[in-house]
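Please check this one:

***
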Amino acid sequence: MRKIILILLISTLLLSLPSCVPQGSHFGEEIEETEVADTSERTEDAATIVFSENRYIFTGEPSSISCEGSTIYIRKGGTYKLSGNLLDGSIVIDASDQRVKLILCGIEICGGELTPICVKNASEAIIETESGTENIIECNDPTRSPIISCAKLTLINNGSLTLNGLSLNENKS
């Protein structure tokens, strides 16, 4: 049952993808197949981004992220642990065809009018929920998806993830 829910979630994300790309944006011509996985390797040397009151604290290589307004850009491949609250903001992965892994460790992202997580350029993107955490990714614009990707996207659900009201929990079947 859990896999069926994940497949339905992925299908919903893919169907809403064309409406999620802002006018005038050219993220890519082709969307690669989205994949769902249920295991992962832990990386101890992950960079961390902690959000608080629309500010962030970053621990990691300084050139790997940048901030423009309320958007955080991840510019280099690697593993990033995200926690806290990002309101009216967005995380954009633009990592020059490198592999990027986001580990959600109790984060709430409300993109407002923005898409909360956008994978613009990467060879592969992995979004994992850490076990025992509750994570919420939502967008106030009903025509946008909470996550869009122009790269291969893998979702690993070890914790709890709510996307615009659809809830995925680690112990539900």
Observations:
- Helices lie at 2-20.
